[in-house]
Design goal:
Length: 260
Amino acid sequence: MKEPIQKVKELNFSHIAGIDDATKCPCIGSIFVSGVVATPKIIRSWKKLGVKDSKLIAAPKRAKLEKIIKETALAYVVKEITPAMIDDKTYNLNDWEMIVVMQIIEELQKACPAQAVIIDNWEVTTELFHTRYSSLITSSSTQLSFPHNIHINTQHISNVPLVAQHYADTNYTVVGAASILSKQGSDKQYATYKQQFGDFGSGSPADPKTRLFVWQHRHDQLPIIRTSWSTYKTLSALERIEEDTIYSRVLNKNTKSKNL
């Protein structure tokens, strides 16, 4: 059963922040998480220009909107959950995302304090979101330290209200703006990676080109591959890529379609 959503009025705040992630499912590259701070006037202008969930925007327009958002936001932050962090099981993926979100909130609050932060909730429920947040922020010290040289001062984040909701990137323009920055960050990273390592397709575990790339580099320890993902674990155990059922099935399906 889906958790009911009670929308807050993002235009009722003089300064409000939005946070969203992108590229959580691929087996290559970082998960990007971004945050923006804006006024109601800025948010209205973004909405008129078509700012919304990045998944609903074509790449050329998304690139133009990214430039506008960065030029007009009161503050913005773009962070990565790198493959090294994803594969570091000191914390699970949901923990890492919360840690990075806390980093973003701290930097936004230092740059331009918001009255509230709306976050696209990746947890199953709002309660789970706040439970995870509380478990990571609980400390006798205001200075938190995590692996990968992450340091957070909780004084900057402990008093700001957090609104964690599913579909926030669809329901709130300010969160849609954050989703655009995250998707653009990922797209730029992929372009750089492909120049350095060659074409690996979409990065999706269902993409045969991606699966072939991962299999070909299974012994190379490339820093761009999420080696804790089941995709890598499955492919690294194969002697021949044709043994991979997903690769073979999709490839055969595409071959049949071309022959029709």
